[in-house]
Amino acid sequence: MSHPAQAVRVAGSEVARRLQVCGIRATEQRLRIARVLLAAPQHLSAEQITEALEGLGGHVSKATVYNTLNLFAKHGLIRQLNVDGLRAWFDSNVEAHYHFHDQDTGQLSDVALPEVEFAKLPEPPAGMEFAGIDLVIRLRRRA
Ligand SMILES: [Zn+2]
User: Fold this and answer.
1) What is the pLDDT along the chain (143 residues), one digit of tens a residue?
2) Separation between Cα atoms, residue 75 and residue 20, nearest integer Å
3) For ion ligand 1, residues whose CB falls within 5 Å
4) Domains of the chain, each with CATH number or no CATH
5) For residue 82, what pLDDT is reported?
6) Residues sharing a CB contact under 8 Å with residue 99, sequence separation 6 or more, in sequence order
7) What are the two backbone dihedrals, phi and then psi, of residue 109, each rounded to the nearest 5 degrees?
8) Ligand 1 center–CA 2 separation, angstroms
9) How many whole angstroms from 50 Cα to the centroid of ligand 1?
10) If we measure between CA atoms, which residue out of 4, 6, 3, 60 comes closest to residue 36?
11) Cys bridge to 43: 1, 34, 53, 108, which one at CB 3.0-4.6 A?
């Protein structure tokens, strides 16, 4: 088993490589933000990422976090989700998938493509093709 500090360094260079692959210049601040979100397949808001960074002992302004996340999403490093109209969620999983949204807790979880089948879709307008389908399945506790 490797030393934990070594594991962190390896993970850090992997994050730097992923930024580079997406054409994003790796600044120290961008790396810090990316390390938080890319640590696991997860959905986090800009507020949660700001809090996590503060928990790690450094202040990054909410505006910087938000701008950086938008930049990451624009370059395809992460995916931005608009689920409830209240806040943007940022998804570290950029593979095609759908979502469950728990309306009570706000929690998002992934639904794999093969778990959903569409029986009928409208014809796209002339000259257009489907680029993707976003699906959010809203959940609530049974009464
Ligand atoms: Zn997801």
Assistant:
1) 444 444 455 566 889 999 999 999 999 999 999 999 999 999 999 999 999 999 988 788 999 999 999 999 999 999 999 888 888 899 999 999 999 999 998 889 999 999 999 999 999 999 999 998 999 999 999 98
2) 10
3) 91, 93, 110
4) 4-90 (1.10.10.10), 95-139 (no CATH)
5) 87
6) 43, 81, 83, 108, 109, 110, 111, 135, 136, 137
7) -140, 155
8) 30
9) 20
10) 60
11) 108
How many whole angstroms separate alpha carbon 20 and alpha carbon 42?
21
- Residues across the chain: 143
Q: pLDDT at position 2, please? A: 43
The pLDDT, as a whole number, for residue 11 is 65
Token pair of 115, please?
Answer: 């778990």
The arrangement of strands across the sheet holding 79-82 comes to 43-45, 88-91, 79-82
Any idea what the Cα angle at residue 122 is, between residues 73 and 128, rounded to 5°? 55
Q: Tell me the CA–centroid distance for residue 39 and ligand 1, in Å.
A: 14
Q: What is the pTM of this model?
A: 0.82
| Cα 126 to averaged position of ligand 1 atoms, centre (Å) | 31
